[in-house]
Structure formats: C-alpha cells, structure tokens
Amino acid sequence: MKQRVLVVDDDRLVADTLNLVFQANGYESEAVYSAADALARARTFTPGLLLCDISMPDENGLQLAETLQQEMPSCKLLMLTAYASNVIKVEQHASRTQRPLKLLSKPCRPEILLREAHELLQTA
Question: pTM of the prediction?
Fold first, then answer.
C-alpha cells in the first residue's frame, strides 16, 4: 500500500507542485489550500504524513498540527516555512507537545523533501 501524504499550502502553485513531486515518487498524495480543508480532508484520507506550510491566512500550520495530533496521533508532521522567524515557533511547539516535528525552509529541493518525508514515515 502506498504511503499517503496530505500537502497543505495556501499558495496553490506550491501545494500542487509538491503534490506532483510526491505522486511522481510513488506516494498517494493530495493537495489542499487551507487548514480547514486540510482537517476535513485528513479525516477521510487519513494521511501518514502532513506536509504543511506554517504561515497561512485563517488558521496557521502549527494550529492545524496541534488539532491533527489530537485526532490522528500516528500522523507524522513535516512543516514548511519561508520565514526564519517561524523556526522558534516550531521549536516551542515541538517541546510543548512532546512530538517530533520536522521543519524545512522554502524553497526546498525535492530530493531533500522526499528524504525527510521517507525518514519520518519510517519511524514508529
């Protein structure tokens, strides 16, 4: 069975491109463009990995990650950001929730993204 990845980014081009990267590399992947849509889709798609932008309008990626952690504790989290200031927020979130949380900066080379996603999905 293919690993499932849910890509969340309010920039549709980024989300769709990352989705294609995962699909081209053997993952079952879908893209959504808001935290609200991500939560709704995750409930039926049940991803093994959430790849999520941090800075989005309405709800940010860390808030989404927290909600998803409560509902789907086995879903792995890989966060993306274009802003260095978000690194501290991610570290604080990870220490507060006691959950591993990976952070990659945008733009991210596909091979790095795929390696990090693969490593996260291999952990129990």
Answer: 0.88
Overall domain count for the chain: 1
Within 10 angstroms of residue 111's Cβ, the number of other Cβ atoms is 10
104 in Cβ contact with 80 (< 8 Å):
yes
**How far is the CA of 59 from the CAs of 22, 34, 35, 72, 123, in angstroms?**
24, 8, 6, 18, 28
How far is the first Cα of the chain from the last one, in angstroms, to the nearest whole number?
17
CB neighbours (10 Å) of residue 91? 12
Cis, peptide link before residue 107, omega less than 30° from 0? yes
Q: Which domain holds residue 38?
A: 4-122
CA dist., res. 59 & res. 68, Å (int): 13
Note the pLDDT tens digit of each residue in 56-112.
888 788 888 888 888 998 999 898 887 766 667 766 666 666 666 778 888 889 999
What distance in Å separates the CA atoms of residue 105 and residue 75, rounded to the nearest whole number? 21
